[in-house]
Each structure stands twice: as C-alpha cells, then as structure tokens.
Amino acid sequence: MTDGLFQDGDLIRVVSREGALIAAGGVASLLQTAHPKVAQGVYDHSYTADDPLRRLRNTMGWLYAVQFGTREEAERFSALVRKGHESVTGPGYEANDPELQVWVASTLFAVAVQFYQLLFRREFDERELEEFYGQAKIYATILGCPEDRMPATYPEFREYYAHMIGTIRITDASRAIAEQVLNPKLPVGPAAAPGLAAIRLLTAGLMPAPIREQYGWKWDAARERRFKLLVSTLSIVYPRVPVRIRTLPREYYLFTTRRMLAKLGPQRRPTISVKSTDPAEAPESPAA
After folding, report:
1. I need a labelling partner for 182 at 20 to 30 A (CA). Which of 43, 122, 269, 286 fits?
2. Residue-level pLDDT at 156
3. CA-CA distance, 178 to 224, in Å (whole number)?
4. Which of 30, 74, 8, 5 has its CA nearest to residue 243?
5. Buried b (16+ CB within 10 A) or exposed e, 12-35
6. Sign of torsion, CA 199 202 206 210?
C-alpha cells in the first residue's frame, strides 16, 4: 500500500506486521497504567473488565490503521479516538494530555523493540533504532501531541524511558487494572487457561524489574527459567511460520476497522462515548 503514512519497508511495518506482538500487549498496557494518571483514567472510564475482546479489537484496529491503513483511515480513526478521549477526564488527569500521550507512545515502541528482538534473535543497530523511534512518534502525534513534546532522538528517548521506569510509582488503580488484564473474562472460560498462563509469564518476564516488583508479581529462578524456555521456543517456532499466517491478525483487525468506518459513513461525525455499547462508536487507543 502506497497511500498510507508509511511504506512496506519501514521498520514500523516490518515489526508491527507480526501478530505475535499481540502477546506482548499486556506488557505495554500495564506499563502505561503504571503511570498513575493513565491508570486512573482507565480505571474510571475503560470497559476493559467488562469486554476485554472488544477493548483488544478497538486498540489493535487503531494501531493497524495507523501503521498499515491509508492516510485517510489513520487520520479519521485517530480523530474518533481524540473525540472519545475528550470525555476521559477526572481529578488530575485527562486522556488528551501530551504527557500521557508521550508515555503511551513510548511504551508501544519500547515493548515492540524488546519482544521483536527476542522473537527473531536479532539486535537492531543504532541507526535502525533511530529510524524506528522516529516512526513510532506517530502514536502520539496523530492524536494531537505536539512532536516537540516527544524526546527528539533515540538517545534522548532512552534517557526519558529509563527515568520513567525508575521513578513511576504505581497505585491501587494500577493494580486493579493489572488484575483485569491478566485475568480477563473470556467467553471460552477454562479453555483459555493455558494460553492466559503463558501470557502472564510473558508479561512478567518482559516487564522492567522495578515495575514488576511494584506490581508484586512473584519472580524467582524457576519462573525465569520457564520464561526463557517460552521465549526460546517461540523464537524457534514462530519465525518459521509463513508470513501470511503471522499477519492474519493485521488482516482481521484492518477488516473490522474498515467495516466500522464504512458504517459511520463519509460525513458522519458522531459524539463518541468510550462506554458506548456499540463497538463501532467507541474506538479506544491504548491510552484509555
């Protein structure tokens, strides 16, 4: 596709096409809600606990629209997200705050780099990291964050990210959301248990130690061995899966996004409620 915000050779597309990255979504989500202001906004307004699959669909739909959709699709969906975030406000927080947009975009970039490198057993060089980081700024800027609020370069990003990881102090809202994310109410019931156990292990293993400790998750030598075995197995098996299979989540979520936008119609500009009962009227980015 040539009319999008990015081209097929851009690193943001090379990395983000991999459906396996969804398995690391819990890490990004719980890093975001480690920030007290993000956590309170999610706790007060999000429907994650009531309908986690809808939450996932809307989040992934927005991400894939930005990464792989047309420019019109990316900008239109993002406008809906911004509109929805206007009502996500409360004492001391608002979802459209550039401070929170910078943090959310940073976690999406950092977790994607971390998991992709483990999954494919490759290290990005400094030039690639600078390129990818520059592209990942879109996660904040397309939602209205001024670009100069983002760390300007990859080295500056590293300083910012390390500072945040070392200084963030999670809250009871953060912990409540973690319980919802790691133990979701899924329609398949007990059949999801093995997969959820693997996701919880992956989430704990990928989470920076200072944040993991604040969440109070058990982490010992035995869990670390299981984590390394899981990642090692994934790195052997997953890259050998045909690309057309690995990218099926992208195709599915782009399809649902385009269906939602078509349902709204070209001229419709509805007032969005983030707690709407209609999934097509409640797109939600990772920040809410």
Report:
1. 122
2. 98
3. 20
4. 8
5. bbebbbbbbbbbbbbbbbbbbbbb
6. positive
- CA-nearest of 102, 164, 169, 174 to 139 is 102
Name 108's Cβ contacts closer than 8 Å, sequence gap at least 6: 28, 63, 136, 139, 286
Query: d(Cα 231, Cα 271) in Å, to the nearest integer?
Result: 43
Q: Does the model's pTM come out above 0.85?
A: yes
- Three-point CA angle 229, 59, 138, nearest 5°: 95
**Rounded mean pLDDT for each run of 10 residues along the chain, 288 residues in total:** 88 98 96 97 86 89 97 96 94 95 98 98 96 98 97 98 98 96 85 92 98 96 97 97 98 96 71 33 45
Distance, C-alpha 172 to centroid of its chain: 21
Structure tokens given for 220: 């010992």
CB-based contact 201:88 (threshold 8 Å): no
What pLDDT, on a 0 to 100 scale, did the predictor assign at position 2?
61
Distance CA 146, CA 260 (A): 28
Tokens, residue 3: 């009319």
- Please count the other Cβ atoms lying within 10 Å of the Cβ belonging to residue 86: 13
